[in-house]
Task: structure prediction
Amino acid sequence: MIFRSSVAFCLSLLSYRAVAQEEPAYPTDYFRNPLEIPMLLAGNFGECRPGHFHSGLDIKTEGRENLPVYAAAEGYISRIKTEKGGFGHALYITHPNGYTTLYAHLNNFIPFVQTYLRQKQYEAKRWDLDLQLSPNQFPVRKGQQIAWSGNTGGSTAPHLHFEIRNTETEHPLNPQLFGLKVQDGIAPTIRELAFYEQDFYGNGPIIVTMARKDGAYRPSKSANSRYKLVADTLLLPTGLIGVGINADDFMEGSENTITFYKARVYLDDDLQSEVTLDDIGYDQSRYMHAYADYRTRQKTKRWIQCLFRLPGNNLNQLYTRLNEDEGRLLFASDTMIHELRVELIDNNGNRSSAFSWIKCLPAETMPAPEGCTFFKQGKVNSYKDPGISFTLDERQLYDNICFTISSEAKPGALSPAYKVHDPSIPLHHYFDMAMRPDKTIPLDMRSKVVLMYSDGGEPDGKAATPAEQGWYKASVRNFGTYWLATDTEPPIITSVHKDNANLSRMKQIAVNAKDAITSVKSFTGMIDGRWVCFEQRGSTYFYEFDEHCTKGKHHLTFRAADENGNESKFEIDFTR
Result:
């Protein structure tokens, strides 16, 4: 390990790269609770979620669906969106004060909105739509009912996802800064601290040094939400050290964890970094992989939030104060003992802090690994050999890495299996992975080629398209193991009803459709030869009976095709 040369310890004189600006002056009496029950939260703004930051409030609905949802302020319904994952059924209201509110995971909209949506779905012959509306189509008053709560999209339990966005930038903002009343007198709980060394060989992108079996980095709580680490004095390497924290916040009346609003790191009472969870755009949300310790999350499921900034982390507004070393602490090889303090503040002003004494170990030097191929952050990095090729653009890496690749024979595959670096190292966005088969593929099978992927678990695949000179490519966004194969198996379609013939007491008809290798790319439901609006939730496809299916006997034809064009057909006669 190579560290920065020893220098005099003078942290109190360091300048800040980013100076905290004044707190935004959000209106605190403009928006109301979108429900008629007290706001108990299952999640809040800025929580780390797989692949993104949480962008609003998850308001609990007493474990029930179909609670009335109300407009938080006057304005007009500017957007209606329906999708199988994500927000499910969602409404957007644009307000005259420069903000837009979002209401997601809804079951249904109020009748005139629902009727408009259904009309557009039948015109387009598809159920997943994203409709932009004009100001005079659906104006609403503050407190007017707009929908019923539900559990649609990527929701795992009934709740209302609520956001307040800047209309111009479309950035979600922290709704709790707008005066919404959330009862919370509980200070954040600090579970552990983590410390990260500066690694010039990129075996990270950040290398955690916190794997202490004695629990020395796990603090014990004393009075007034003050925590002290178990070890009396921590011994840390000389050089640049980053601090991370694993913490949860809670509120009265809810067992769900939420997150803090601000985190600060002090050394000998000098502020070194400050994180503020307020304004995070959707175009920035995937940088959560640079903010949280991705490797620890992948291996242990724990969220450790890094209170320093990696080179490729573009969450500039998140770090409201940073010293000149991007929030890392610079230690020299001296004999001094220093005090570290990490402070957390939640949205209601409740505070917690963890304390520890720190002493430095002598600096060590380690030679670079033999045969290391550096992939540098901020640069275009490419790899190509006779069987595999890809390019990472300058935004892909959050830090330098010592890139590795290896291959081995894969019985039954069309190519070797290539282990492309380490799946615990994050990449920022999709890129084309190209591979060339080592076997001849018949002409009629070239549309059936798939790029298979595994991160050590169950493999899955994506349709691969032919490219020049016999290559096949697909869009991916992870390191891991890849190989080429074929997919000739269509999706399997089954009914969810015990009695397929008699549905007279049912409100809907539904089927399950699953594909073993890729995914269901397209589907169509026809009753008596006419298209009807089937909706997808996970692997279930359902049609809620309406005027397009009258009482009596009918015939259903449901088709589903996967990414490689393999199609299945399912037919039943039923009585409604």
